[in-house]
Structures are given as C-alpha cells and as structure tokens.
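Quick one:
INPUT:
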C-alpha cells in the first residue's frame, strides 16, 4: 500500500477549502451572490451546487485527516478532478450561451470560477502524477 504524499494532501486541502468557501456562499448567501448578476435568476441551482460542494469539502477533509493510503481514495480522487473538468465545460457553455444576457458581474464571476478551477485542476493532475510515481 502506498501512503498519500504531501502534494496530494495539499491538493486535497486546497480543493476542500475552496469547495467549503463556495459551498457556504452558495448555500447561505445566494441572494447577495445573485443580486448584481442580472440575467441569472435561478436561486435553486446555486443551492444545489453548494450542497454538492459541501459534500466534496467533507470528503476531502476526511481523506486528508483519516485515510492514509492512496488505494483507499484513488477512485474518488479521480472523480473529484473529473468533476472539475466537467464544471469547466459547463461554465464555458453558460458564458457562451447566456453571455449576451448576463451582466458584467456574472461574466467576471464565471471568469474567476474558470481561473480558480483551472488552477485546482492543474494542481490535481500534478499531484496525481507525483502520487503514481
């Protein structure tokens, strides 16, 4: 059995902290979060995504602090980073399809999300390759 390397733990912690912060914002501050974003008026979608992010954050913290073996979390680790990749695609499609009707704040938020998810994805892929060595 192979232990989790430090870079993998850092990657999971970064993913968990970002997920927890976004989950709290999407679950409890939806009205403040959506107020400047004219063109996006579906308050249910951010709450559903916030619940998903809360589950991800709980898993990442449990994986870092309770699981010590790579084989125990390998499948879920791959799924987490697959989820980021799919979210990048969806975020891009939302901006392309709804772009003309979205406000500048909504487009800026989408751009920030894409940059943040790209950094997490690169960190995750890097730590996955280092873990496999």
């Amino acid at each position: 059995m192979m232990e989790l390397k430090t870079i993998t733990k850092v990657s999971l912690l970064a993913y968990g902290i970002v997920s927890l912060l976004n989950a709290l914002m999407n679950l409890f501050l939806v009205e403040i979060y959506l107020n400047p974003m004219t063109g996006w008026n579906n308050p249910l979608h951010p709450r559903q995504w916030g619940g998903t992010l809360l589950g991800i954050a709980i898993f990442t913290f449990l994986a870092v602090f309770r699981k010590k073996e790579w084989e125990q979390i390998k499948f879920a680790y791959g799924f987490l980073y697959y989820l980021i990749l799919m979210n990048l695609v969806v975020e891009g499609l939302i901006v392309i399809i709804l772009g003309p009707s979205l406000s500048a704040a909504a487009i800026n938020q989408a751009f920030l999300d894409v940059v943040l998810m790209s950094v997490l994805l690169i960190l995750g892929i890097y730590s996955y390759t280092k873990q496999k060595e």
